[in-house]
Amino acid sequence: MSRVTARRRTVRISPAGNTERPDTLAVEEPLELRVDGRSLTVTMRTPGSDIDLAHGFLLSENIIGSREDIVSARYCAGTDADGQNTYNVLDIQLRTPTPILGRNFLTTSACGLCGKTALDEVRTRTRFPIPAEGPLVDAEILASLPDLLRSRQSVFDATGGLHAAGLFAADGSVLAVREDVGRHNAVDKVIGWALRESRIPAHDLVLVVSGRASFELVQKAVMAGIPILGAVSAPSSLAVDLAVESGLTLAGFVRGETMNVYCAAHRLKIR
Q1: 123-167: pLDDT as tens digits
Q2: Quick check: is 76 catalytic?
Q3: What is the number of other CB atoms lying within 10 angstroms of the CB of residue 9?
Q4: CA 40 – CA 42 distance, rounded (Å)
Q5: What angle do CA 115, 178, 46 make, to 5 degrees?
Q6: Which residues does residue 216 pair with via DSSP β-bridges, in sequence order?
Q7: What is the chain's alpha carbon radius of gyration, rounded to the nearest angstrom?
Q8: CB contact at 8 A, 190 and 166
Q9: What whole-number distance in Å separates Cα of residue 108 and Cα of residue 174?
Q10: What is the pLDDT of residues 237-256, one digit of tens each?
């Protein structure tokens, strides 16, 4: 498989002087997703968990609803300048052919969709509406999850250049953590893991992300039926609007012992 880190030369400039040394960087490579042999999309990602990424992306786009909808996922042959397989083309065979080529995927910034249109699109497409109740999660447990997520970011420790997403049980148990140069890819990877483990709809799980909560990340949580999303940084206004529309518990600035809960705080047990 492709490497997730690479070494590059750098000049370190500091008050103590300039030194030349190698630096460890996160690998960023394109992944082309094909469906039944035809190109669907290309995303820039960190190699690893590509099959989870494909499952999560297809679920988020409402192309599949269960792991049984995919018959196979195979890498296509491709080599780099050294003759090594790049593993950068993944072909997905669906159980039931779907006319998806040429469709416009719902995206976020600069997609040209107004807020109302975007909200309506997600609400009408999700197969797994979020239940009005449960799970009930201790606010102290939710506050502890970003640090727990951070402790599982092994590639970030080496590079300082990756986002992360994690799925947790209501008691704070770690179920899956994935890293990627793209925050949306990291979320697709953990959702894809849940789909392949038959944990979708994820009505009993908590999603935590290492950065901000964009509309796109809330969209992915809603499409997977995840009821609670915690983010280390801020949400966008449209992310909050979608969370309110969908009944998702959205917490931002989850750091230390504090957080801002923007909607559906009834799922958090506050002591």
Answers
A1: 668 899 999 988 999 999 999 999 999 998 887 777 777 899 999
A2: no
A3: 8
A4: 7
A5: 85
A6: none
A7: 19
A8: yes
A9: 29
A10: 999 999 999 999 999 999 98
User: In Å, what is the CA distance from 245 to each residue of 60, 143, 164, 222, 230?
Assistant: 17, 24, 26, 10, 17
Tokens of 85: 């397989």
* Residues of the chain under the 50 pLDDT cut: 1, 102-104, 106-113
Q: Which residue has the tokens 């196979």?
A: 72
- DSSP line for the chain: ---SEEEEEEEEEETTEEEEEEEEEE--EEEEEEETTEEEEEEEE-SS-HHHHHHHHHHHTTS-SSGGGEEEEEEPP-B-TTS-B---EEEEEESS----TT-----STTS---HHHHHHHHHHH-SSPPPSS---EEHHHHHHHHHHHHHT-HHHHHHS--EEEEEEETT--EEEEEEESSHHHHHHHHHHHHHHTT--S-TTEEEEESS-B-HHHHHHHHHTT--EEEESSPBPHHHHHHHHHHT-EEEEEEETTEEEEEE-GGGEE--
CA dihedral 165, 69, 132, 258 (to 10 degrees): 0
pTM of the model: 0.87
Separation CA 34–CA 87 (nearest Å)? 13
Instruction: Return the amino acid letter for 4.
Output: V
Which of 57, 33, 31, 34 has the alpha carbon at shortest distance from 45?
31
**Catalytic option among 76, 111, 114, 263:** 111
